[in-house]
UniProtKB/TrEMBL annotation:
Protein name: IGF-like family receptor 1
Disulfide bond annotation, renumbered to this chain: C96-C109, C99-C117
Record-annotated TNFR-Cys domain positions: 79-117
Transmembrane segments: 31-52, 161-186
SMART domains linked to this entry: TNFR
Keyword flag Zinc: no
Keywords, alphabetical: Disulfide bond, Membrane, Transmembrane, Transmembrane helix
TNFR-Cys repeat residues: 79-117
PANTHER family: IGF-LIKE FAMILY RECEPTOR 1 (PTHR14657)
Stretch forming the signal peptide: none
Membrane is among the record's keywords: yes
Length: 332
């Protein structure tokens, strides 16, 4: 569709100065030279401009982009579309030729040159227009490639994007699975290591027979007197003041501080029993239940046994409370 109502030929434009339709210049250099040549340039410069500003790779726009009043709707020329070319011999871009069977592509079509084909075994390239037919236009006949002879593209941008997306997705899935497998293996090894450590720790409690640990015993002698260490565990239960202070220190469940639950575990009580005594703490102190349970199962236990477990729990504050048993022991 053109921009001029007076000039039906799309390759012309309406010149208001002469009131006639003039043919559009075929190159940018012609527009420039026509406008400024009479003032600034001589003939040599004009020739240089025309050579440098040819219309190769371009085509003129309808009515050079002007309407009948001189208004511009678009630039006088535009680049050739993909699959077309203009080598400067025409005002419009022409479709690229396709090589016929038995020929190979010596030079692919660009916007400035047509396809060049050469026969197999020959070294001379020449342009070939294959499978073309004539179509009638307002200005005569022109050649157009036959759609049936155009080979289908082997690769498209959409297909390429799909392949890249699929590869990226596969890489992400592979990395994710690798990380998950590594985490599972690490957790499994860690679980086995903890199980082995737990087994050895439980075995040490059983095999020890609740006997005092000599390494800790030496440290405790600096805090508690030998008389207190050798006193029966029942002494703690009988001294209500000491027992109450120990209950206040050990029964609460404070984060980061070991309590009666840890003491019961060191005394080899099962987790279910520990949970039960804590569920009954409103009616009875869990610490008192632990001490009574140990005293019932092992009447030979002494205060030293309890002090050793408290030392393992790093509860020196509770050990200091046991030192108050000295008065009771001396009275006994």
């Amino acid at each position: 569709m053109g921009h001029s109502e007076k000039c039906r030929d799309l390759d012309t434009f309406w010149d208001q100065s002469t009131s006639t339709c003039k043919e559009c210049p075929r190159a940018a250099g012609e527009w420039f030279a026509i406008a400024v040549y009479p003032v600034l340039f001589d003939s040599i410069v004009l020739c240089f401009i025309l050579l440098m500003c040819t219309n190769t790779g371009r085509e003129i726009t309808p009515n050079c982009g002007f309407d009948d009043l001189g208004g511009r709707h678009e630039v006088p020329w535009r680049e050739c579309k993909k699959g077309t070319f203009n080598d400067g011999s025409s005002a419009h871009c022409k479709p690229c030729a396709q090589c016929p069977p038995g020929f190979i592509y010596a030079h692919q079509c660009t916007t400035t040159s047509d396809t060049k084909c050469e026969a197999s075994g020959r070294g001379t390239g020449h342009p070939v227009t294959s499978g073309s037919f004539q179509i009638r236009t307002e200005r005569g006949f022109t050649l157009k490639p036959h759609p049936a002879t155009t080979p289908p593209p082997l690769y498209t941008e959409a297909a390429g994007a799909g392949i890249i997306t699929a590869l990226a997705f596969a890489i992400v899935i592979t990395i994710t699975l690798g990380v998950i497998c590594a985490c599972l293996i690490w957790r499994r090894k860690r679980g086995r290591r903890h199980a082995v450590l737990g087994f050895h720790r439980r075995s040490s409690h059983i095999n020890s027979g609740f006997s005092p640990l000599s390494a800790l015993d030496n440290d405790l002698r600096h805090i508690l007197s030998p008389d207190i260490l050798s006193s029966p565990l029942q002494t703690v239960l009988d001294n209500l003041d000491v027992l109450e202070e120990l209950v206040i220190l050990l029964d609460p469940e404070n984060q980061g501080v070991k309590n009666t639950k840890h003491l019961a575990s060191h005394c080899s009580f099962p987790a279910t029993w520990i949970t039960y005594i804590y569920s009954m703490k409103d009616s009875k102190s869990p610490l008192k239940a632990v001490l009574e349970g140990v005293n019932s199962k092992h009447p030979d236990w002494t205060v030293g046994h309890l002090a050793e477990r408290l030392k393992l729990m790093e509860r020196n504050d509770a050990i200091a409370v046991l030192s108050k048993l000295g008065e009771c022991v001396m009275q006994a």
